[in-house]
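User: Here's a structure from my thesis project, written as structure tokens. My advisor, Dr. K., wants to see whether a designed sequence matches the one we expressed. Can you design one independently, without my sequence as a hint?
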């Protein structure tokens, strides 16, 4: 009976027995198994994500057309196809890793108990000390001064032609392979690609090698971490408990010795170890990876064929490979540090820009997330319109940085424009309200002054004075109501989502309304710029302010163009520059049409619009739910503004779900 074990997260170590065919999908609650269904609490897993079935030949896995896909080791599975499962392989679905093992539960329990004492290590050691065979002369205590100059070696080999090869042609061919090792290691800075390159070249160098693995040594934690485990005849097979003795590790790491065991099975001590017997290991080489006196890790190569034992010459070549690998590992670490530093700069820059407008906080990070997910979904999509589209790791990184920085140009927009929540600024609205109160006070002052003057001139009787005062006060009440109606209407029209068609004609009645100020000069109740702002049909911005906001795209392009991007990231300025362009030419800043807009910018445009519509309540409007937002975007698609195929993938893949 086989088992699945959760390797990470809250349910680390939970075991499921595979006593029948099972389907794995998303849980509604806790992770559990019910009948033939395993439910896992992971929102990135589909409801019916994958199936594991068994027959007389073993176990098989099938992706059930899941949204985010399934990986076996580092290999993505093609939906609907069956893949054989081997002991020790890791299944990646969503954020969850499942270890497949064909060991029964009792054996697993015993092995866990035996390895508990060494839980601080990343893999299991064998405690028995083997009889070690170090190559003659013990000349392999590798110091930094023994690193091979690969460029000089390549030049020397290039001087030879096929006609003047020395007698030992096999040695020359292997040295030529060493040049290929140097070239392969120098061609990548990505750790995953680096490991694939080194293990691939090891199998070319050593025809008898069946397995190769690279371990990284963390001196501060005194532990080894597996970077790569590969079999010659098992592509992508990278997960297995490693057979290696503590004595080998101590010699390799502490004494910086490269070790050769030419017959592990024949050794009285080493050959009796359970892991060696299970793997039928015959010959083993293990060499340290050293850079400037520092041990970075080790490389082990072994085989099971008694007729293919490694020799001293093989070990010397492995040491040379480790010397080249040391430099590449250091370069990879430096590159990762630079990437991490740049990533921190980008995030800090985005955080600084978004702090100017708390209402849009998190927008750039969410857009980057949506954009990257949509790009990966488009990459996986097999429809005729999109099947030729492919994004590699560098292109996805380029798109992610462009998305994070797409609004960086808002640093050039005045803050009061950027955060404007109503059609009138608060101080403008307050001034308008005070003017209405002032108009009421002026009307009242003028009316009572007139009553006093009439009393002086006409000598009104008390009854006449009272009647005249009552008529005056009724008129003032009407004037006050008229002005209050004006204020109420202004407050309503000041909202960005008001119905202008119902109010604009009424406001026009006040456009020419004048009152006499306290110094007897005529004054407009509603200023022309106020009337224009309140009658604006698009959100809270007037034409000038909208133009200023739109300039943020050009500011972004100018800023990003000043950065000396690497060749892999060189498209960032152009992608960010076009994220407000629309396929019908109605976008800005350049009015690009369809094919002139970069595909990455079309992807980002959908993500940007969706987040703008669904983001939490902003000062000028409430956030919409997903259904309403998708309907609005669909209307933009039908008008020819956004790409129909990309939007279809956005909806079908549920990219918009967090």
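Assistant: Designed independently from the structure alone:
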């Amino acid at each position: 009976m086989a088992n699945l074990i959760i390797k990470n997260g809250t349910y680390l170590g939970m075991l499921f027995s595979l006593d029948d065919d099972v389907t794995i999908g998303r849980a509604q609650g806790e992770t559990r198994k019910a009948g033939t269904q395993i439910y896992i609490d992971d929102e990135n897993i589909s409801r019916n994500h994958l199936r594991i079935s068994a027959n007389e030949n073993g176990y098989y896995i099938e992706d059930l057309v899941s949204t985010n896909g399934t990986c076996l080791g580092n290999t993505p599975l093609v939906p609907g196809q069956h893949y054989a499962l081997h002991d020790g392989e890791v299944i990646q679905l969503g954020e969850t890793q499942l270890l497949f093992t064909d060991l029964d539960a009792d054996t697993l329990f015993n092995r866990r108990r035996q390895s508990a004492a060494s839980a601080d290590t990343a893999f299991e050691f064998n405690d028995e000390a083997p009889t070690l065979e170090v190559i003659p002369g013990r000349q392999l205590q590798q110091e930094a001064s023994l690193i091979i100059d690969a460029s000089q070696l390549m030049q020397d080999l290039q001087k030879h032609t096929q006609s003047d090869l020395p007698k030992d042609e096999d040695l020359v061919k292997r040295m030529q392979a060493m040049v290929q090792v140097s070239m392969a290691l120098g061609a990548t800075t990505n750790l995953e690609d680096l490991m694939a390159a080194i293990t691939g070249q090891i199998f070319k160098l050593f025809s008898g090698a069946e397995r190769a693995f690279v371990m990284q040594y963390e001196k501060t934690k005194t532990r080894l971490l597996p970077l790569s485990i590969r079999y010659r005849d098992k592509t992508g097979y990278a997960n297995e408990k490693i057979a290696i003795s503590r004595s080998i590790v101590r010699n390799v790491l502490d004494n910086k010795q490269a070790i050769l065991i030419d017959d592990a099975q024949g050794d009285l001590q080493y050959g009796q170890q359970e892991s060696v017997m299970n793997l039928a290991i015959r010959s083993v080489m293990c060499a340290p990876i050293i850079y400037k006196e520092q041990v970075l890790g080790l490389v082990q190569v072994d085989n099971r064929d008694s007729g293919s034992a490694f020799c001293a010459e093989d070990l010397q070549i492995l040491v040379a490979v480790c010397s080249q690998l040391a430099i590449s590992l250091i370069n990879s670490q430096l590159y990762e540090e630079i990437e991490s530093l740049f990533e921190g700069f980008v995030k800090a820059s985005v955080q600084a820009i978004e702090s100017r407008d708390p209402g849009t906080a998190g927008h750039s990070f969410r857009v980057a997330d949506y954009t990257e997910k949509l790009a990966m979904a488009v990459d996986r999509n097999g429809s005729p319109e999109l099947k030729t589209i492919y994004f590699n790791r560098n292109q996805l990184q380029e798109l992610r940085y462009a998305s994070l920085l797409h609004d960086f140009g808002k640093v050039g927009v005045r803050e009061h424009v950027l955060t404007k929540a109503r059609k009138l600024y608060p101080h403008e609205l307050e001034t308008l309200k005070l003017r209405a109160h002032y108009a009421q006070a002026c009307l009242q002052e003028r009316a009572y002054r007139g009553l006093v003057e009439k009393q002086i001139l006409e000598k009104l009787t008390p009854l006449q004075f009272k009647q005249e005062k009552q008529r005056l006060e009724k008129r003032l009440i009407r004037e006050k109501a008229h002005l209050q109606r004006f204020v109420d209407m202004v407050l309503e029209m000041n909202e960005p989502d008001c119905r202008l068609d119902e109010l604009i004609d009424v406001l026009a009645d006040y456009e020419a309304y004048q009152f006499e100020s306290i110094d007897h000069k005529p004054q407009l109740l509603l200023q022309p710029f106020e009337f224009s702002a309140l009658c604006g049909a698009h959100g809270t911005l007037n034409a000038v302010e909208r133009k200023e906001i739109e300039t943020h795209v050009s500011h972004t392009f100018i800023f990003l163009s000043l950065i000396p991007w690497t060749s892999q990231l060189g498209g960032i300025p152009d992608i960010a520059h076009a994220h407000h362009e629309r396929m019908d030419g109605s976008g800005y800043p350049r009015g690009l049409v369809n094919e002139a807009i970069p595909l990455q910018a079309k992807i980002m445009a959908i993500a940007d619009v969706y987040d703008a519509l669904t983001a939490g309540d902003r000062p000028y409007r409430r956030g919409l739910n997903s259904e309403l937002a998708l309907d609005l975007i669909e209307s933009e698609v039908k008008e020819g503004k956004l790409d129909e195929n990309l939007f279809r993938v956005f909806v079908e893949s549920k990219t918009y779900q967090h």
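When you compare it with your expressed construct, this may help: The two ends are 37 Å apart (CA to CA).
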